Amino acid sequence: MKVVITDYQYENIDQEKKIIGDAGLKLAEYQIKDAKQLIGLIDDADAVITQYSDMNREVIEHLQHCKMIIKYGIGVNNIDVMAATEKGIYVCNVPDYGVEEVSDHAIAMIFALSKKLPIITKALRNGDWGYSSVVPLYRFSESVVGLVGLGRIPQLVAKKLKGFGVRILAYDPYVMPETAEESGVELVDFDTLCKESDYISIHCPQTGGTNHLFNKRVFQMMKKTAFIINTARGPVVCEEDLVEALESGEIAGAALDVFENEPVCADHKLLSMDQVIATPHCAWYSIEAITSLQRKTAEEVVNVLAGNAPFNCVNRMELQNKHTS
Question: Which key words tag this protein in UniProt (predicted)?
């Protein structure tokens, strides 16, 4: 059986080579993201590992006997899941490799915003000794943190924030009340979360229903002293509306690790705003996270090609329905 890696950004793929090789599988590696270049190269793959390559319908339709496509990461936006499902191909991901890192990053952003650290640092460098540049600041322990989504990462955010005395709200139409109770958060509707939160941390996937979920209407609903944090997917926030909200004072600030178009342009308006903290989609990063991601990706490939059900499959239900219909 043949495994193909379309592209990767890591220093090496020694772990994958060993795990896949020890299982008696053949491995071919490329650094190709363009869909048209992939056609012909990966057609005979039994499993495809991808990071950023364009696994669109045309590429998938050329796959002759592929059993799985797995993403180095969580989001599968670069994979046409519907096309894969129609061909009976598992679409897999690795949802837990960087949950500690992303939850820490979101919390670090919340803390930095709560003390307006970038603003006061810039003021001090410009000779302003004092706190006038960050007036007003509010006591963090008396604030409300809203979590949009209550999966693995926001559950960890809630767990880590518990010791700070904040009230934590969550909006997730798919989560069970028991999960919210175990996480120590209050389940509320979306509008309530937006109106009552001092910090809104986004942790939902990008779907048709969440695209531009945060827009002009929502920013007008939020407190003028509120902040928004996004470590999920850029398109969940309408950046044009966010810029307008920040410029008009509708909200107090933002912290973004993800953007609508990546890599973000250096002259993007959001990058020049003092009340915005921005990082280059790196919330997931640590040495341990990369090691875990590469290992778990290879182990999942071996698992599925051995005839087992995948550990993590984003189209499992669709395939089950397809097979039973």
Answer: NAD, Oxidoreductase
